[in-house]
Design a protein that fits this description.
Layout lengths: L4 E6 L11 H10 L4 E9 L10 E7 L6 H18 L4 E5 L2 H10 L7 E4 L8 H13 L2 E4 L12 E3 L6 H4 L11 E4 L8 H10 L7 E4 L5 H13 L6 E5 L6 H5 L4 E4 L8 H8 L3 E4 L13 H4 L5 H12 L3 H15 L4 H13 L1
Parallel strand pairs: 1-2, 1-4, 2-3, 4-5, 5-6, 6-7, 8-9, 8-11, 9-10, 11-12
């Protein structure tokens, strides 16, 4: 495969977005591999596209309001114009199955390798299910983070791990330093924040703090956040922090000892890998994270998705000394670093060539 021109498709380019800011790091890494990179994005921040000269950003400006039809026609014209002016050697769609479909429909019909990166459970809405299924059909290959993070079974699907900016997040700790807890998560019902908060308040750590970092996306998510804030408004140690810019997150993480992730199988959240890389002890319920820990340590890190199980796990940790907690974290930290951006980008390119 020639490494002249890459067409890169994604959802957003915004360093200030806690959840999606990592996409900029992916783009920086892929831009090192190609002479020229054209990016089509569904949400282009006007403030922070400080990429190298070989990267050109196209797409929908995040500070403007368009109807879905207007966006579709803008994207159609953009795709047609780009394919008329340049021959691409590779198309990579980062969490954007819709854009991949549009490129196939509106772009030149040639045999350009097309790879979709997608790591998320099956969508609930029928239209999104159809879009994801079509993107699988239109792709040459699909890459995903774990055995359970792509919802359709296919020979096209390759598990390669996540892509974490380990250079940004790495923090070598000799001690956990404090007993503050963190949930780094989009505020939505599927992340089971309520189970975590209730378990924490019933545990022996209930005099410590639990900070939720992340924001809602949909109106349904906003309603859920309002419900949670109302429910826990009398607890000063339950803190809804909102967004932290992704490029500031590594420094912010230094103030925490523990991170809790309560997503079921199908979610392979990068927040677990980022916080592990930052030297933070993790508790989780998703079996996909088992491989990061020693088998003997899983009894301290993994819980069932209910209040009783997580509360008991927290009480068990309360009795462990700092040395034991740190040894568990350091082992997982080393494994998490293997899922770095440099390695993941090379795995993607290797799969594209085969």
């Amino acid at each position: 495969m020639n490494k002249n021109n890459l067409l890169y498709l994604n959802l957003a380019l915004d360093d200030k977005d806690t959840s999606l800011g990592f996409a900029n790091s992916w783009l920086y890494q892929f831009a090192k591999e190609f002479n020229d990179v054209d990016v089509i994005t569904l949400k282009d921040s006007t403030e922070n596209n400080n990429f190298n000269d070989n990267v050109k950003i196209f797409g929908i400006k995040s500070n403007k309001k368009y109807s879905k039809i207007e966006k579709l026609f803008q994207l159609r014209k953009l795709i047609i114009d780009l394919f008329a002016s340049k021959k691409y050697d590779f198309i990579f769609s980062h969490m954007s199955p819709l854009l991949l479909i549009l490129v196939v429909l509106f772009g030149k019909k040639n045999k350009i390798p097309k790879i979709l990166w997608y790591t998320h459970p099956k969508p609930q809405e029928l239209t999104k299910k159809i879009i994801l299924f079509l993107s699988l059909k239109f792709s040459n290959k699909v890459v995903t983070a774990s055995d359970n993070s792509f919802p359709y079974k296919s020979k096209k699907v390759h598990v390669i791990g996540h892509g974490i900016d380990t250079k940004l997040f790495f923090n070598k700790r000799k001690t956990l330093e404090n007993q503050n807890f963190l949930m780094l998560s989009r505020v939505t019902k599927s992340k089971n924040l309520e189970i975590v908060i209730d378990s924490f308040l019933k545990s022996k750590f209930n005099e410590n703090s639990l900070t939720i970092v992340g924001e809602y996306v949909t109106q349904k998510d906003q309603n859920h956040k309002n419900y949670l804030i109302k429910k826990y408004e009398n607890y000063e140690n339950i803190i809804f922090k909102g967004k932290i810019p992704h490029n500031e997150l590594s420094e912010f993480l230094k103030t925490f000892s523990f991170h809790i992730n309560a997503t079921p199988n199908g979610y392979y959240d990068k927040s677990v890998l980022e916080t592990l890389t930052a030297g933070i002890f993790n508790l989780y319920s998703n079996s996909d994270y088992d491989k990061l820990f020693k088998k003997s340590s899983i009894q301290f890190t993994k819980f069932e998705l209910n209040i009783k199980s997580l509360k008991n796990k927290l009480d068990l940790l309360y009795e462990l000394d700092d040395k034991d907690l740190n040894e568990i974290t350091q082992y997982a930290q080393e494994n998490a670093q293997e899922q770095n951006l440099e390695s993941i980008s090379q795995r993607v390119l290797t799969i594209a060539q085969n």
